[in-house]
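Honest question from a wet-lab person: if I give you the sequences of every part of a complex, can you actually get the arrangement of the whole thing, not just the pieces? Trying it with mine:
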Amino acid sequence: MAVARQRIHLPPAAWRRALSTLVTGKMWEGDAIAQFEKAFADFIGAPEAVVVPSGRAGLCFTLEALELEKGADVICASFAYPVVPHLAHRLGHSVRFAEIEMDTLGMDPEALAATITDQTKVVIATHLYGVPCRIREIAEIAKAHGAILIEDCAHCFGASVGGTSAGSFGDFGYFSFETSKPVNTMGGGIVTVKDPELAQRMRKIARKQNPNGFKWLARRLLKTSFEATVTNPLIFNLGVYPALRLTSKKEEAAERFASGYQRDETTLQHRMGRYTNYQATLGLKQMASVAPMVERRIANAERLMDRLEGKVRFQRSNDPDVRSNYMLVTTLMPNMLEVSRRLLAVGVDSKHTYMRDCTGIGDIGGDFPNAIAAEQQVLHLPAYPELSLETIDGMAEKVAKVVAEF
Ligand SMILES: Cc1ncc(COP(=O)(O)O)c(C=O)c1O
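Yes, you can. This is the full assembly:
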């Protein structure tokens, strides 16, 4: 059996809860929102959390709540989710970049120290693919220069540094609840906030968004059901895998299917509106069960990394007290595209070109060789919790053989 690059599920009882919240009039507003915010803030160890319509909307609302002047100096990581610097730029801020390091693939604290000035208003640090960046050093540098620190936690629910959860180091931390993320409420997100006054301001901004209607709800349910179907191992093997094999021979199609199975949206389209009480009920339910899934994902990732030790270079943290959730197990492959094609041929579907070298945004120039290398080399291998250790071992053997061909 071929192994799909990801496994997506409908949140437990998604259709039933949609119906019951609809019937009881608690689809759009209700108590679950405040309960979910409290449960999430407690889990992370943050004073406050505010639900938002998406991770990217969380970033926009944060920048709005900070009431920055136009042209404020904002520093992002050179290799990240492009929509992040893109939105900061579109909101009228002056975006600059600090280079990443090749181990964590997160912002390099030394590069930040060389880039930041006392004029810098915001630093956005990303914990990519569930491996925390060197956030303690980054937080110290930001604080020394009086800059606000925002953690991009879209991937890192369940990851921690020195026993402290990612998302509680910065002034803000935004999480995404898209379908491929550790907590999946079919879209949406949450922002952890240190200052209760700023949290209130964020809440006001979030609550004044127009509610999304039934069309939106139907679209989210159908989209997630579709993703759950195509990543189901049986359907994947019967239909998707043969189609991927065919299309992988065509350059253009290979690019199209690079990240998820569809093109990544890099706009706010379908990502605004108001987070619903219905989604909060889905999130609350998962808070109780997500920890064992994170544990299994970590066990699979560590097994795969162990089996390929010395043969493949992996993204990892060198700090012994860092716990990564390995939302995506990430390798650095010099012949990434060819390796991914060969892996597909032997039954291992992989993912690439999810994050990008962002340094073209804002047109400021500069030299960012690590961002270029990461974009060219990052390849994600499947290690999601549903895979057995036997499957992981079989896959490790195949990967080792393919890598040895190059
Ligand atoms: C690193 C990172 N930041 C931010 C986001 C934006 O999250 P959302 O899709 O919920 O807007 C994503 C989405 O995949 C992401 O990967």
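Two things worth pointing out. The longest strand covers residues 120-126. The domain at 1-287 is CATH 3.40.640.10 (Aspartate Aminotransferase; domain 2).
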